[in-house]
Specification:
139 residues; mainly alpha; 6 helices; flat
Length: 139
Amino acid sequence: MILITTVIGALVNIVFAIALVIPFGAWGVITSSVIAYLTMMIMRYINTRHIVHTNPDIQYHIVAVAIIVIQVIILSMQIDYATVLSIILLIVLLIYTGVRYRLTIAKLYKSYSDSMYYCEWGLWSSLAVGCSRGLDACC
């Protein structure tokens, strides 16, 4: 299936590049590549739904992609302080992600902190390292 989605993505890329290169120049080619990758991603998601059951957060992805598109537009316009604005948008995206997935982050942190132990020398060591020589030998 990977070969099929890759060939279809390539064909989509060629068709859109030819259609968009004259009116938009390099941006048309860039846009056609993005459309091709989105096409491949959607096709591969549909194909693997029966193997891996996922529940994608569509609203989060729309907001994240919108912020990234705004960053690209700001940086391509070559306005003053474009980098600063882009970094601010990145921070906004990171805060949005943290707030949106705070429960998942808390669960991951808890499971990670539960797998840690404090050794006699004051060093943190992870149980996931796989030390088979005993607790004292790992520290």
